[in-house]
Amino acid sequence: MDLDRITHPLRLARGSHHSGSGKGCAMNVISYINGDPQVTDFPTCSARPLSLLVQSSNDLLAGPDGYLSPEASVLALDLAWQTVGTADVPDTVVHAWIAQLLTSPTWGVLRYAKITAHQAILDIAALHRAAAAGEMPEIADWDAAGQAAHAAAETLRGAGRRAVQAAFESTRFVDNDLLMALDKVVVHAENAHALASGDVSTASRITEFTGHAISSWRDLASAFTAPTAGATPASQGRETTAVSLSIAGSAMRR
To answer: pTM here?
Structure first.
């Protein structure tokens, strides 16, 4: 790894940046180290929904000048490193992950919806769990659940509305690439957590959400993917995280 190409004069900053600007987000660092033909916010080694979450965390951690402090940079890089090896999972993993994003007691968005909207979210999560088990529901079932969620969302405001919208958008992948269709799901889920942050800073809430989301994805990938050569791609990424973060963190402080 050519550290000079990363640290001179790269600084982690909010937003997208053109080549040679000396600025980039944490996922740009991963993209470069991964050897992507063009440095991007979405490295080929990282699952797209997780990359999107890390980008949001990166931007929220930036200071008033648009740059991340050394401490915030280490946090953003830690999250980014954890996404390495998470790409190319089967759709069963993605469906299981969506179900957790919606209903997990720890990090799901169900808690933000009014009790009258809970069933709409739970029904959609059940469809995703069925798909994760290899029993893909009929299109009519997805459509019916989506319509019920859309109607429920119209009665809500704030974090609750965003929570139900996340569920609704997760039913709209039919005839589309599942991972690409997740962009809106992730954005609505992020907004639900942000709007419900209360006394906790939005940056803290979203980075915590991102950490849970990455851990869940990796755990599900390990559970759904048969191990090869002693490790799955996700576990291989985890094994290199500590060493890589140590290198990147020390390099940023030069």
So the answer is: 0.84
